[in-house]
Design brief:
With about 130 residues, the chain is mostly helical. The chain has helices at about 5-15, 30-50, 55-85, 90-110, 125-130; strands spanning about 20, 30, 115, 120-125. The radius of gyration is 17 Å and the shape is globular.
């Protein structure tokens, strides 16, 4: 596989697993996909109910932060893929698969994420994405 596929794999993994902080709620650490989901939900409310009051601000806040954290995930993935391009492909892919397998298990078994927008203040990947 080439470095482009490796970068894409790292982006998706970081997008779903890496806990990014939220600029306003300092105790929030969730993956970028959670911010995108919150932005999509706020946008759906704005379209269905109107953007009066704080709804428009919520859409801008969540969508903007989702775009920013997605971009940061992409930059981090490009950096890691560039670093891994100097080692043999098989070793790079095995290391990547091992890292994300461990990260996925960690995200499912433990409660590494913290969000003020969930049912509980701390949770695993299934609680954050539900």
């Amino acid at each position: 596989m080439d470095s482009k596929r490796l970068r894409q794999f790292w982006f998706v993994g970081l997008w779903f697993l890496f806990p990014w902080p939220f600029m306003i709620f300092q105790d929030a650490f969730v993956p970028a996909v959670r911010y995108v989901l919150l932005g999509s939900t706020a946008a759906a409310v704005a379209v269905a109910e109107g953007a009066a009051g704080p709804v428009g601000l919520m859409v801008a806040l969540f969508v903007g932060w989702g775009v920013l954290t997605s971009g940061l995930s992409w930059l981090l993935a490009a950096f890691v893929a560039k670093l891994l391009s100097h080692i043999p492909d098989r070793i790079a892919w095995l290391a990547t698969a091992a890292i994300f397998a461990l990260g996925f298990i960690w995200a499912l078994v433990f409660e590494p994420y913290s969000t003020p927008f969930g049912r509980a203040p701390h949770g695993g990947l299934l609680e954050v994405l539900s």
